[in-house]
Structure formats: structure tokens, C-alpha cells
Amino acid sequence: MVNDHLSDFVTRIRNGYAANMPVVEMSLVKTVRATAEAMKEAGYLADVRGVGKNRLELVLKYDKKRPAVSGIKRISKPGSRVFKSVRGLPRVWGGMGINIVSTPKGIMSDKKAKKLNLGGEVIAQVW
After folding, report:
1. What is the pTM of this model?
2. How far apart (Å, rounded) are the C-alpha atoms in residues 115 and 67?
3. Hey, what's the torsion of the CAs at 58, 64, 69, 71, to 10 degrees?
4. What value, to the nearest 5°, has the Cα angle with vertex 38 and ends 15 and 81?
């Protein structure tokens, strides 16, 4: 049984890319789906689709057998939440990566959050 679905999501993506898997499957949770959609919108995943009633399928993106994600890290954890204002959002790899941020308007990338002038909980970093 998984208690922290977002940490499981990050670990499955990291392991999927390390094993050169085309597809990763996990349980369907609203926060995980929203995080996956934000990664897809930023160009780190090829597709996100629901399979059956309670499964989520993530199609990993590769460029000539090279993973689109070279690193992914969970920032805010259940025991240690990390909240940042719009000006306090950290840069990832000198601006080459993104932060996934949970804002009052939903889960989105830091670039979109900055356009909307929103801060929030920094869920993960992707580069």
C-alpha cells in the first residue's frame, strides 16, 4: 500500500527512464494526474492516459533513445512541506528545468505560475 502517491510517481518515472521503458503504469490519483499533465505540457512526457477505472498510464518521451528527463526530485514531502512565493521559486538547472507547483489555481509548472503571479507548494523539480 502506498501512502505518498507523489513520491511513488517520481520514483516510477525515474526508474522507468533508467530502464528505458516505453510506458509506466500507476494508480490513478487526482494530484498525480495533475502533476503528470503539467509534465506533459512542459514536454517531459509524451502522453498521459487513464486505463480502466483506477489506473494511469504515462508514455515516457525519448529523443533518439535519450530520455527527455535527465533528473526528477521530490521537494515537498509529507513531513516537510516547502512553500514559496512567486518570487521565491528556485531555478532548476539554471532555468533549464521546471518546478512543479501546487497553487490555488491547481498544479502547474513554475513558468505558468509566474505568468499567473502565483506561489504555492513546490512538489517536485524536473530537469
Report:
1. 0.91
2. 28
3. 130
4. 75
